[in-house]
TrEMBL record:
Transmembrane segments: 33-50, 178-198, 254-275
Keyword Transmembrane assigned: yes
Species, as recorded: Choanephora cucurbitarum
Source organism phylogeny: Eukaryota, Fungi, Fungi incertae sedis, Mucoromycota, Mucoromycotina
Protein name listed in UniProt: AB hydrolase-1 domain-containing protein
Keyword Transmembrane helix found: yes
Cross-referenced InterPro entries: AB_hydrolase_fold (IPR029058)
Keyword annotations of the record: Membrane, Transmembrane, Transmembrane helix
Length: 477
């Protein structure tokens, strides 16, 4: 009797434990298999990263070189807006050992010649000096700067000093796992479907050549095929979202161009606020996938981008728009101001990188500065060392195309323009830009205490910016 009772008590726990043990071992085995497979995929992706990083090192040149007349005009525009020549000159150079800036006395004549050869010819000094006319022009620039600022460079070259030359410097990148890109893809697609399309009523342009690249392109192709989203239209260079006005009236549209990050997704809450205040206006969201961590290395030129923005407006029956842009997006606005000024009804720029680009701040702070504080580390690893963002900045970003001088802007646009600068911006030289814009009477705001892009988490400044967009837009109807 006792034996039978003991057996039952022993058997009942076993009936529960054995299936649980089996399920645990099976799940563990599957987890080990999945982890091993994914680990192998990540190893292969690292090899892909190494090979792609090497491929992206190839030097690229602008679609069109500057003419002698254009170089001279650009040079004069630059030196006419330099207030402190010594600080300006020192900013473009750094010691290769610790990336600190040298004093101007350590910068010699050949050092400044190296920088000018890159800035105005987009090439190495030795290549520029092979052409007699170019060599004479380069010498004229140095003498002109020396006379203008009453400073004489010492002869020779200081080999310890390097100058910033974006499209000639290496493409620096830090590996990040494929899982990070897959995560960005999945979150972006959910946001696009649920947020942009279902909740806010945006329509995507399905005719873009490169919205995603690398291995993620395969995942995107599978997604497009699964839901029959592939477009048979001629492929465009840019991708965008369009939302028609709720009241059906024809008002001046707003075109928003995002900055570096993860694309429109970064601005989700701000876009929601914008729509709540300006639902009666047509809105375009232009995407720049090559700076949105989408593994895209095919980059349209400034001319191609401007042409397709014009076509985008015409497709929906608009001739002009109010361009709202943030950070790198202001470079796109600068292209449009210079290449398609007739499409500009007004502009609102936030954390603009397009003003005073001949100063070192944007190039040095984003590409060459070694991080020392938490926010700098976040910027360094989260953006500037992402391979495809780094590739764009180091191979396709042309400072002379993106720079915007006030004289480039038509008078009617100047009257419908607002600029917002972050006081503690670690990328843009906000103080210099503020004084430059103030001298020319541009409506400029300094967002006190804010870092670059921190307006996105500041309710007061988000509302102020949207109020300015409302004001400028209403004047253009």
């Amino acid at each position: 009797m006792l034996t039978r009772l003991f057996s039952k008590r022993l058997l009942l726990p076993c009936l529960f434990i054995l299936p649980c043990t089996y399920a645990y071992l099976t799940a563990t085995f599957h987890l080990i298999v999945i982890s091993s497979i994914w680990g192998l995929i990540e190893c292969l992706f690292y090899l892909y990263f190494v090979q792609t990083k090497q491929r992206l090192q190839s030097i690229t040149k602008p679609e069109r070189l500057l003419t002698k007349t254009e170089r001279a005009a650009l040079f004069r525009q630059c030196i006419n807006t330099i207030k402190d020549f010594r600080a300006w000159c020192e900013g473009w150079f750094y010691y290769r050992t610790d990336y600190t800036h040298p004093s101007i006395h350590q910068i010699r004549r050949q050092n400044i010649a190296q920088w000018l050869a890159w800035a105005f010819w987009h090439d190495h000094l030795e290549h520029v000096q092979k052409e007699k006319a170019w060599a004479e022009e380069l010498e004229w620039m140095i003498r002109e700067a020396e006379d203008r600022f009453s400073y004489q460079f010492s002869d020779g070259l200081n080999p310890d000093v390097e100058c910033i030359r974006l499209n000639l410097d290496p493409v620096n990148a830090v590996h990040r796992p494929l899982l990070a890109y897959v995560g960005i893809y999945l979150i972006t697609q959910c946001f696009n479907l649920v947020g942009l399309q279902w909740c806010w009523g945006f329509t995507p342009s399905h005719s873009t050549t490169h919205s995603w690249g690398g291995p993620i392109q395969l995942l995107d192709h599978l997604y497009q095929s699964l839901f029959n989203l592939a477009s048979h239209q001629p492929k465009d260079k840019i991708t965008y979202w369009y939302r028609a006005p709720t009241d059906g009236q024809s008002k001046t549209p707003i075109v928003f161009v995002h900055g570096i990050g993860v694309g429109v997704l970064s601005y989700a809450e701000w876009i929601s606020l914008l729509l709540s205040r300006l639902s009666d206006r047509p809105i375009f969201l232009v995407e720049l996938p090559y700076v949105a961590m989408r593994m895209v290395d095919t980059v349209p030129t400034a001319t191609e981008t401007t042409k397709e923005v014009r076509q985008m407006l015409h497709q929906y029956g608009y001739d002009k728009a109010v361009y709202v842009s943030h950070s790198l997006g202001t470079a796109v606005t600068s292209w449009i101001i210079k290449l398609a000024p007739d499409t500009v009804a007004g502009t609102v720029m936030i954390d603009p990188i397009c003003f005073l680009l001949h100063y070192h701040h944007v190039a040095f702070n984003f590409v060459h500065r070694l991080p020392r504080q938490l926010i700098e580390y976040l910027m360094y690893y989260g953006a500037s060392r992402e391979m495809y963002i780094s590739h764009y900045i180091s191979r396709h970003f042309q400072w002379f195309e993106s720079i915007c001088f006030v004289e480039h802007i038509q008078k009617t646009t100047l009257n419908n323009m607002a600029v917002f600068l972050s006081e503690k911006d670690r990328i843009v030289g906000s103080e210099d830009v503020y004084h430059y814009l103030l001298e020319h009477g541009i409506n400029t705001y300094v967002m006190k205490g804010l870092e670059h892009a921190m307006f996105l988490i500041n309710r007061k400044w988000k509302n102020t910016i949207i109020h300015q967009i409302e004001t400028i837009s209403s004047k253009t109807d």
